[in-house]
Amino acid sequence: MAKIIGGIGASHSPTIAFAKDTNKGSDAAWKPIFDDFSVLQNWVHDQKSKCVVPYFQ
To answer: Please, where are the H alpha helices in the chain?
Structure first.
């Protein structure tokens, strides 16, 4: 039986993809956002989940 361990949500912003593609992660305006996503990335990794189900609406 599967167990739901969490849910992650983020607002849609095309400029986030632009910032990532243009390596703006260390710019003052973008750093706090990318730092927050890094925390989430580490949490997901630490869970050692066998499956992640993306949901887009």
So the answer is: 14-21, 31-47
CB neighbour list of residue 24: distance below 8 Å, 6 or more residues apart: 18, 30
Q: What is the pTM of this model?
A: 0.64
Can you state the angle between helices 14-21 and 31-47, rounded to 10 degrees? 90
- Above 90 in pLDDT, residue 21? yes
The domain ranges of the chain are 16-47
- Structure tokens given for 44: 């997901």
Between the alpha carbon of residue 31 and those of residues 16, 36, 53, the distances in Å are: 11, 9, 27
Residues 45 and 25: their CA atoms lie apart, in Å, by: 20
Would residue 56 be called left, alpha or beta, if left means φ above 0 and alpha means ψ between -120 and 50 degrees? beta
